[in-house]
Amino acid sequence: MDWFTAPDYWLSRLVFQRALAGVYLVAFLTAALQFRALLGARGMLPIPSHVQRIPFKAAPSLFHLHYSDRFFAACAWSGCAVSAALLAGLDSQLPLWGGMVLWLLPWVLYLSIVNVGQTWYSFGWESLLLEVGFLAVFLGNDEVAPPILVLFLLRWILFRVEFGAGLIKMRGDACWRKLTCLDYHHETQPMPGPLSWFFHHLPRPLHRAEVAANHFTQLVVPVLLFTPQPIATAAASLMIVTQLWLVLSGNFSWLNWITIVLAVSALELPGDQPSRPAAPLWYEIAVLTVAALIAYLSYHPVTNMISRRQIMNRSFDPLHLVNTYGAFGSVSRFRYEVVVEGTADDVPREDSDWREYEFKGKPGDPRHWPRQFAPYHLRLDWLMWFAALSPSYAGSWFGTFVERLLENDRDTLKLLRRSPFPPDAPPRYIRARLFRYQYTSWRELRETGACWERTYVREYLPPTRLAGVAQRS
To answer: Is 461 buried (19+), middle (13-18) or exposed (0-12) by CB count in 10 A?
Structure first.
């Protein structure tokens, strides 16, 4: 091994690159299938009005230069095509500079989407994908062995993801320190998965053990990433096992999957290393420059991480090159859901024929068992969880969402599992009510087949018609 490259990691790089391309593919597919109702010209938060308010310098995006729904679709589907090409290994068939350009394309396209995505793209895994995707540009292809500096920077991201998340828990909710957070988390998390009900009903001593193991994996194990092999491989492997456990417990978009991808880059996988020529000088200069830039930009994330006022999921530069991460600094004790209903009656009364809209992922019908969607991200379902916590979280888009339901807007209805009204007969009124949801017991599940029981809390949105959408309470 020379001073610049690490040939022993060529297989780790290969697995990392193909897995990252798969995550990119899911991210672009999510954008392509959902953008019209969320961000399109007639979306709940239209991109054209957003780019008029936000200058290019503050949030660089191709859509500052031009926007149309057709152009956005072209960018999203192009991202899918490039990601599929990378997944198939096209970058290995190109010259080194060509492979780098191919990896740069999805980064530019996804940066353009995130920077106009507003609240729909305000999740930490968006910045994480961009930060990892930027470093992937400089990881090289079959012409050179993996650069040591880029492998180190990938571990640096993994360290910040895990250690930052561990710190935010210890500084946040007291239940993490008391080892009791999992008494609530599986029931109150944003979007439960098909096994979440069973995770919730695990014995409480096992919940305590899970939390303690989580603290160990996030606060102790990350330090071992920077130790010699095989300790670093063992540390990364433990992180992968932990993330797979989280994959089983709920729908967290691609957060767990991209963390697994990062951990793969730290593994020293067995295999015969093919001989490669020394890296060209221009490539070494490019990698050294990027490493210096990342070191400089790491100041704010590190300062935030060691601060007593640590914040979660924040980007400190418009290109999302170095970010801060963390999740569930506090855990809700109760689950609330906004149930949206419509009626075709001319006068909305309590005894009117109110029909419930069903979402794809978030709890609705107590008998509807949750499905596995991650790594695919149901953006509306996630934001509905926040809306239930407080109407202020939905102030920018919920009124338009109601309008689109009153119009039977085709693109909006595609985001739902089922509309109770036929396409040619939209509802006359829409209302929303807030319910508390709780998991049923084993006995109740056997007797009723329902995984949830729900209790009415209050009115969330009074009956509203298209002529004048009322403000929410």
So the answer is: buried
